[in-house]
Amino acid sequence: MARYYHHETVQMHGTNDDIRSNVRRGLAITTASNYRPERSMPPPSAIAFGPSQRGRSSSSSSIAGKKRLSSQIGAALPPSKRFYSASPTKASGDAISNRVHRRVILCDYGKPIYKAGSRLAFFAALEGCIEGHESLHKAGLLHRDISINNLLINEDGNNPSWPSFLIDLDLAVRKRRKCPSGAKGKTGTRAFMAIGALFGKQHSFMHDLELFFWVLFWICVHYDGPDKSRVVPEFDQWNYISMELLAKEKKGQVSYERDFIKSAEDNFTPHYQPLIPWVNRLRKAVFPNGGRWEKEEIGLYARMREIIGEARRDPKVSA
């Protein structure tokens, strides 16, 4: 994980910067003719994706640009992050939520993992991020938003940051949190969400480990090295199709080994073709017998790291 340095509540003219006091400045929005209470709003899954938004992480200038829809010309990134919850906690009565502007400064900075300078560096960074996630799990936290922009790599020998690390705990929760909006619901960046999470299952560290697989798969399809990306309509639709359909699409990708290998051979970029046998081995570890996991297994961390470690010793990967 990126190391903490400082945090603060941003102030404007000597007062905390928030929606209720600083933006609305006491405006009674409940008296507006078009006011709709939160409980009458459409469910998050029914809200269309809007224009791209500026990335929220301040840990790296290289990822501070806009997150674009993958359907946009020349873009290969998933859409802006959305928070999905099948069981959100509602404020009692007519209470209106208040958002407070806070700032977190981190010690470490790097670039997104898909900008890795080589396949070997990419796999080393992925292994390091999985190890970092395991440390989070041991500390009692679920990240819940593993994505291509939240896994960072540092290949600069003069940069004292970690070689690789996770960022963005915006959607993280404590594993034993009792609040119904805690670990249950549809949460994360849509294109990478685990199949079980898409069905609204209780979120587990096993779902997060599945997210690592989908990040790997996405990068192998969309990036031909550190500086070349492409649009692949078949997979870019994962950004906007319904969650139920996306779950079926993903199940179809991983269910049968021959079909998966054929899809990888057809869709992985030339740069990542040598990774196909190793991505397939990870598929078999994450999806036992081609299906979703039935019970939590802490040993999956070690198995995934072991497979990646073997891949790093493969001459075809390091070539």
Automatic annotation (TrEMBL):
Which enzyme type, at the first EC level? Answer: transferase
**For this protein, what reaction is catalysed?**
L-seryl-[protein] + ATP = O-phospho-L-seryl-[protein] + ADP + H(+); L-threonyl-[protein] + ATP = O-phospho-L-threonyl-[protein] + ADP + H(+)
Any one Pfam family here would be Pkinase_fungal
Q: What EC number(s) does the entry state?
A: 2.7.11.1
Task: Kindly list the GO molecular function terms attached to this UniProt entry.
Answer: protein serine/threonine kinase activity
Compositionally skewed regions (Low complexity) per UniProt: 50-64
| SUPFAM superfamilies documented for this protein | Protein kinase-like (PK-like)
Q: Gene3D superfamilies from the entry?
A: Transferase(Phosphotransferase) domain 1
Q: Name it.
A: non-specific serine/threonine protein kinase
Q: Gene name on record?
A: 20353845
